[in-house]
Design a protein that fits this description.
By secondary structure, the protein is mostly helical. The protein is built from four helices and no strands.
Length: about 120
Amino acid sequence: MDAALAALFGTALGAALGAGGVLGSAWIQQHHQTRRERLKAAADLGLADFNNRVKVVERNGGPLLPLSVFVAYHAEVLEVLAKGSFDADAVEAIDRRQIALVQAIERRPSGKAIREARGQAAQKV
């Protein structure tokens, strides 16, 4: 009888571990799929936002930031929305990070054009 109980216990434990592995794997895959979809949505929103900005720059002049700035902004907004913590503090935090990102881009040698366009836009006003 002891051998039968041990076999039953072993089978139950194996089944539980197997089921746990399958559930864990499915959760990880779903988590990564959700993240990929959120990043795709951020890229789509960022591209649309960037294209709108291109039209504004063509019409009024001013700086044109890299597409990555727009995508990063929308990725952060979607992340905060997914966490359910979208409020005034979250918006201010996103704005602070965006300002820091733009300033970092402007400090790079390739940011010279952005600085010059910003100066030209300020002179028009």
